[in-house]
Amino acid sequence: MSGRWLVKSEPDAFSWDQQVANGVEPWTGVRNHSAKLNLAAMRLGDMAFFYHSNIGKEIVGVVEVVREAYPDPSAEPGSPWVCVDMKAVCPLPRPVTLAQIKADPALEGFALIRLSRLSVVPVSVEHWAHLCDLGGLKG
Q1: Is 30 exposed, middle or buried (0-12, 13-18, 19+ CB in 10 A)?
Q2: Is 76 exposed, middle or buried (0-12, 13-18, 19+ CB in 10 A)?
Q3: Domains of the chain (ranges plus CATH)?
Q4: Backbone region of residue 42 per phi and psi (left: phi > 0; alpha: psi in -120 to 50; beta: other values)
Q5: pLDDT digits 0-9 by tens, 17-72
Q6: Which residues does residue 122 pair with via DSSP β-bridges, in sequence order?
Q7: Are 42 and 63 in contact (CB under 8 A)?
Q8: Span 107-132, pLDDT tens digits
Q9: What's the pTM value of the predicted model, to 2 decimals?
């Protein structure tokens, strides 16, 4: 089973619509060591929920890792920061809001809530399946 993740982006900086329009996009700009370690742990074929943070506060789509971690071109040369390339897979038919997530007992312990400041978090198989159901994704 490939890994499952959630990546956050502020939609006024980089939105789901931009991800879809660009096809494949490097996930740059992560400047937190825990989030960096999560990026470095991603493997080809891993899936991630695309979450709009600050504005919207909802899961809006699914992306796939199509290139594993490499030096982030938006960082200072020689710095430890990495990025991965993501490809848009599909939108969620029904975006899943942060309010829904916080109110759902089945999502207790979900890293999005527990590690709310982190921009890249792992998602358990159980939470992934439940969030897909809530968002109207099958399979």
Answers
A1: buried
A2: exposed
A3: 4-135 (3.10.590.10)
A4: beta
A5: 999 999 999 999 999 999 999 999 999 999 999 999 999 999 999 999 999 999 99
A6: 5
A7: no
A8: 999 999 999 889 999 999 999 999 99
A9: 0.95
